[in-house]
């Protein structure tokens, strides 16, 4: 139920637009690394100083116009230039829908090719993120096309997908981020039970650590992290073959500790005013994340806003249900 609430909130364009007006005043500055490139570069430098690399996400939602997608592309190109100019340890994460996948496939591919080409010139990696299953195959198609020309691209496999192991094997020669998944998907495409998702998550991580190119393990769960530590030790997998990833602002002490222990660590660094959908999906992905950020993010104002939003969403659901019963 709680996951459904946050997924519903993430897809609410009205609330997304309202959040933009507040910017980071709502407390999101603890989980979003600034609103502009200068601020995000400063955040990256601070993390680099602790031996932590970064993957940078220029946040953006609900892109259905070419000018919006072009604007997003230009911003990402500027981020790439800034990473090169400041010589920071960072790469790019991006979502195809932000670059026009919902507008036209060839338009999106052209935008992505320009970004990957610019990044390739500087030796910067680009991770093509996965979204919901409606965009799954087109995203794989984009990845297939780009990989014909470039080797600085990778992607994400979501453990809740029933065919995740097939996708992982097909793309085993790509740098791969493995996640549990943050969208609500029907049973015909995805596991619905948390235990099944967790078990598949471990299964995919282990398989790719043994058979894949490079594995990014995206989790805040210390049980998973401890399991991976034991697995790589038992199977003589060098640290150079994998990294742990966490979101900016989450479990900061653990991020620092893992880097201090000598593990490769990468922080997912989002920036921009369009943070709302991203934040709601993180809460949907793992409701326990709400506890992780409660002290550092959710002040009284934020609690009130999220509470009102959640209440509005639930009221809408109840109203729909009541109307159906009347019919």
What does this structure look like?
With 327 residues, this protein is of the alpha/beta class. The protein has 2 domains: 76 residues, no CATH class; 243 residues, TIM Barrel, CATH 3.20.20. It is built from 13 helices and 8 strands. It has an 8-stranded parallel β-barrel with strand order 1-2-3-4-5-6-7-8, surrounded by 7 helices. The C terminus is likely disordered.
Distance separating the two termini: 25 Å
**Name of the CATH first level of the largest domain:** Alpha Beta
The assembly state of the depicted protein chains is single chain
- Major sheet attributes: 8 strands, parallel, barrel
Report the order of strands and helices.
HHHEHEHEHEHEHEHEHEHHH
Predict the CATH topology of the largest domain: TIM Barrel
- Poorly predicted tracts of residues: 296-308, 310-327
Strand content: 5-15%
Shape: globular
How many structural units, i.e. domains?
2
Strands, count: 8
CATH architecture heading of the largest domain: Alpha-Beta Barrel
As a percent range, the share of helical residues equals 40-55%
Give the helix/strand class: alpha/beta
Question: Mean pLDDT, nearest integer?
Answer: 85
Q: Identify the strand order in the major beta sheet.
A: 1-2-3-4-5-6-7-8
Number of DSSP helical runs:
13
Rg to the nearest angstrom? 19 Å
């Amino acid at each position: 139920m709680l996951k459904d609430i946050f997924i519903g909130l993430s897809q609410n364009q009205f609330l997304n637009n309202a959040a933009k007006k507040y910017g980071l005043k709502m407390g999101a500055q603890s989980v979003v690394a600034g609103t502009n490139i200068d601020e995000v570069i400063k955040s990256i430098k601070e993390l680099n100083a602790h031996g932590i690399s970064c993957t940078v996400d220029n946040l953006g939602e609900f892109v259905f116009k070419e000018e919006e997608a072009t604007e997003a592309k230009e911003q990402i190109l500027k981020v790439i230039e800034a990473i090169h100019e400041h010589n920071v340890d960072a790469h790019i994460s991006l979502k195809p829908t932000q670059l026009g996948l919902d507008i036209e496939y060839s338009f999106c591919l052209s935008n992505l090719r320009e970004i990957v080409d610019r990044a390739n010139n500087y030796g910067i990696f680009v991770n093509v993120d996965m979204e919901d299953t409606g965009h799954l195959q087109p995203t794989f198609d984009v990845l297939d096309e780009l990989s014909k020309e470039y080797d600085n691209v990778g992607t994400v496999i979501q453990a809740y997908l029933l065919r995740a192991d097939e996708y992982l094997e097909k793309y085993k020669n790509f740098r791969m981020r493995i996640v549990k998944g943050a969208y609500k998907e029907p049973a015909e495409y995805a596991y619905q039970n948390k235990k099944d998702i967790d078990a598949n998550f471990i299964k995919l991580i282990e398989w790719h650590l043994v058979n894949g190119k490079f594995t990014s393990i995206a989790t805040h769960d210390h049980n998973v992290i401890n399991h991976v530590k034991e697995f790589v030790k038992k199977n003589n997998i060098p640290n150079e073959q994998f990294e742990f990833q966490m979101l900016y602002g989450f479990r900061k002490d653990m991020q620092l500790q893992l880097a201090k222990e000598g593990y490769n660590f990468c922080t997912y660094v989002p920036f921009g005013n369009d943070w709302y959908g991203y934040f709601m999906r993180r809460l949907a992905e793992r409701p326990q994340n709400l506890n992780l950020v409660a002290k550092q993010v959710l002040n009284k104002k934020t609690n009130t806003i999220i509470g009102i939003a959640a209440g509005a969403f639930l009221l809408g659901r109840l109203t729909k249900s009541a109307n159906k019963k009347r019919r």
